[in-house]
Design a protein that fits this description.
The protein is about 40% helix and about 20% strand. The chain contains nine helices and eleven strands. A five-stranded parallel beta sheet has the order 2-1-3-4-5, sandwiched between helices. It has a four-stranded antiparallel beta sheet with strand order 6-7-8-9, covered by helices on one side. Strands 10-11 form a two-stranded antiparallel ribbon. The radius of gyration is 18 Å and the shape is globular. The protein starts with a strand and ends in a 7-residue tail after the last strand.
Length: about 240
Amino acid sequence: MSETSILLIEDDEDIREAVHQLLSSENYNLAIAGSGEEGLEKMTDDTDLVILDIMLPGISGLQTCERIRKVSNVPVLFLTAKSQESDKLIGLMAGGDDYLPKPFSYAELLGRIKALLRRYKVYQGKNGTAGNEASEEMRYLKDGNLSVNVEFNEVIKDGKNCELSDIEYRMLLTMMRRPNQIFSAQMLFEQIWNEPYVYTCANTVMVHIRKIRMAVEDEPKKPKRICTVWGKGYRYEDRKVSR
């Protein structure tokens, strides 16, 4: 039996059945819910990925994602019939890690699932390293009142945990490891998402940069850590980052 657990929250019965068959053939453990309320009840600490429809009866997929983010950084893949860029950005702002417009191919869905799971298990410390000396001696990058664990998603500011998604954590860590280097939107997208870049991806990067600033900046509207280099991209300002 697979150790990977996926939660599908989708009210369309045909899609639920098709995704069930697809993921069963890949030996994933799948829990299914037809509404946001039911999905929140079925989510556990062992859930590795949530596939979430935006248009749901009762509380919406966006509201469901916001509630998930209050308790977990598990990757959230939005399924949406809406294809406009503004709707996608709203989904990312609600805490989603990726989105897939309907109708979609199941090969593409499976590819997105595997990519999100791979990133989550590698960067969230889910590779069974507990008990090893390396995992016990957690290492941090430090910048004043900010500490970032380099082994898994733990970001602490002023002694409090910052709620960053897997994508946002990786973006922050990537930039923090190379202070003063300018990262274009294309560089960040291709390195973090590992997908080809198109011009609309710049908005996706911008949304996540904004959310990172909300978490780690003392004054998000006047950032001193993650600075915009107009016409070029973003950089983490060198403030004597240390281990």
